[in-house]
Write a structure and sequence with these properties.
With 225 residues, the protein is mainly alpha-helical. It is built from 9 helices and no strands. It is 75% helix and 0% strand.
Length: 225
Amino acid sequence: MGGVLGDVLGFAAAVAISPLPIIAVILILATPRGRLNGVLFTVGWILGLAVLGAVMLAVASPSGASAHHQPPTWAGALKLALGLFLVLFGARQWHRRPRDPAQARLPKWMGAIDRLAPAKIFALGLALAALNAKNAPLTIAAGATIGSAGLPVGQQIAVLAIFVVIATLGLLAPLGVFLVGGERARTTLGNWKEWAAQHNVAVMAVLFFVLGLKLVGDGISVLAS
């Protein structure tokens, strides 16, 4: 279990420091119903990660590990494919990054956050976790790693739960600052938002490139064994 947990911690950390969801929750906290909407967004995020991870566990668990305690061939192929996708995606993001961070622009949908109803805020958190092209491959890779390791069901659930908790820390930090600091926290959160907005593309490009290379290496190792 410890070895599998070590394998998925990198994926969880990469999901946790995704700048766009962090910016989104900070913007949500600045709305009139910020306290309620911030909690709903975070709950939606947690549910999205948990459901996507659980689906991968259900797919991967029946195959389990081989008699030699090696992941099945399909897991190696999946990691290789996800790794190549992340490397190419990271390279594309790096190429498209603003040369001047001050010129970075946020997605247009963020401008409508203050007009979203609580149900849509919840759905937004769910979508950013489970359907986002940046986070979904990392969660799929984590679920495949856990499910194909041959662990007992209880240990699989425990590792997935730890993954979800760590992957949510990026949202829990601004939410905690807001709930504890209230109005006094707005300046701190505003500074976080500005930094994340300026460096979003560069941060994610580097993360995806590094994690993509790791997945490529892991996939090749499985296929060659």
